[in-house]
TrEMBL record:
Its EC number is 7.1.1.2. Keywords: Electron transport, Membrane, Mitochondrion, NAD, Respiratory chain, Signal, Translocase, Transmembrane, Transmembrane helix, Transport, Ubiquinone. It comes from the Eukaryota. It catalyses: a ubiquinone + NADH + 5 H(+)(in) = a ubiquinol + NAD(+) + 4 H(+)(out). Core subunit of the mitochondrial membrane respiratory chain NADH dehydrogenase (Complex I) which catalyzes electron transfer from NADH through the respiratory chain, using ubiquinone as an electron acceptor. Essential for the catalytic activity of complex I. The keyword Zinc-finger does not apply. It is a multi-pass membrane protein. The gene is ND3. This is NADH-ubiquinone oxidoreductase chain 3.
Length: 115
């Protein structure tokens, strides 16, 4: 295909989509759209609401195990190294350490939402 017709088609289609996107939406502001939304908190109340530390604990545990998966992703390629036993040893030690930490948090009641 020739370059000039392709560029004309692309430009025309882009302009049509841009013009339609300005005409298509209905702009009818109502009370719900005009009211401020602050992540579910009452915007007119106190800004110093107590926040549960357990939420942060669960969030940190999620990030920790999410990063663990990212660290273990190259593990299948580790068996092609000169000494795959050492790769398996270090990956297993990381997993065991994380599992022991999770068991400790679980037995201490750190993952319970209500006391």
């Amino acid at each position: 295909m020739n370059l000039i017709p392709m560029m004309l088609i692309t430009l025309t289609l882009s302009l049509i989509l841009a013009v339609v996107s300005f005409w298509l939406p209905q702009i009818n502001p109502d009370a719900e759209k005009l009211s401020p939304y602050e992540c579910g908190f009452d915007p007119l109340g106190s800004a110093r609401l107590p926040f549960s530390l357990r939420f942060f604990l669960v969030a940190i545990l999620f990030l920790l195990f999410d990063l663990e998966i990212a660290l273990l992703l190259p593990l299948p390629w580790g068996d092609q190294l000169y000494n795959p036993i050492s790769t398996l040893f270090w990956a297993s030690s990381v997993l065991i350490l994380l599992i022991l930490g999770l068991v400790y948090e679980w037995t201490q009641g750190g993952l319970e939402w209500a006391e």
